[in-house]
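Person: Show me a sequence?

Helper:
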Amino acid sequence: MDFHQLAADIKRWGAELGFQKVGIADLDLSAEQEHLQRWLAAGMHGEMDYMERHGDLRAHPEQLHPGSVRAISVRMNYLPAEAGFAKTLKNPRLGYISRYALGRDYHKLMRKRLKQLGDRIKEACAELEFRPFVDSAPIMERPLAVKAGLGWTGKHSLVLDEQGGSWFFLGELLVNLPLPVDKPVAEKCGTCNACITICPTQAIVEPYILDARRCISYLTIELKTAIPEPLRPLIGNRVYGCDDCQLICPWNRYAQLTDEADFSPRQHLHAPELLDLWAWDEETFLARTEGSPIRRIGFERWTRNLAVGLGNAPTDPEIISALESRRDQVSDMVREHIDWALERQRSGAVQPAKQVLRLVRAVERGLPRDA
């Protein structure tokens, strides 16, 4: 078997399946293991106990699929056209949802494509054994993507590519074939610290180190308990995830828009009024988030996040009335956030965050291009 030719074919087949870039890496993640252990020891994973439970396994992907010696790493763009960043962020009455979650859940789509890629490789090489991964197991997808030459690790800890920015999903095929590996690309963040300074909660505590406990994506998605009160005003109108560190990144001037119809925004999630979202009951939430990654946080956390968003909106009697009407219908955890929001609304203490104003100006100047 000519593995060099097979590697070239794999990249061509991957492109035909809709992956924007395909690279190949060995499975040695020993250099990342020490970094991961320090991060876990500092408690920066917050309530994500699964990170600690599977810490050692993450550094040894060959244990996830015995016999594997290579990872075929792929990326798929998800940035939709007319993403409406500035429109949503600068209007505190709207709910901001991370752009990756506006369409259908990417896991099934990418896993299906990876399975198709594996089947195609097996047609050419019967000895192939493979297993696809899309956030489906404790695998360090970003370090593998970096080793495979898909980009470098930015100071916000995301993978960056000079021709595609960072608006892409990652997936992997673990395979048992000794394919030639790709070379990592040079890190090109230089002296830029835009992502660090723009973060509303200062979650990027130093270059390349993210304290998840302060990250808005963690607070609105992963955290199952109450959001720490000092951080609530900083969340603004972000009700599911946050994109600020990507929005401010100069490399995202070169972001590539997706042509995947499944990643197009759903109308009721694209720049929605916070009060409209607040009016959903659980049945409506489940119906309108069917097939969406948003559904996995559940209605309780969704309501908690909306209460924070409404607490950060300009004072409005309609908001106060809406919050009061739900106060006795929710859990104690959500009620705490409603009471906080009511106090904010009644005191008129809400002020627009300086970071938001700076971010909106950057987006309106064209970051990212055509979005």
Notes: The chain is about 40% helix and 10% strand. Residues 3-80+102-175 form one domain. Strands lie at 21-26, 70-77, 96-97, 130-133, 152-153, 159-160, 168-175, 204-206, 209-210, 238-240. Residues 71 and 174 are 5 Å apart (CA to CA).
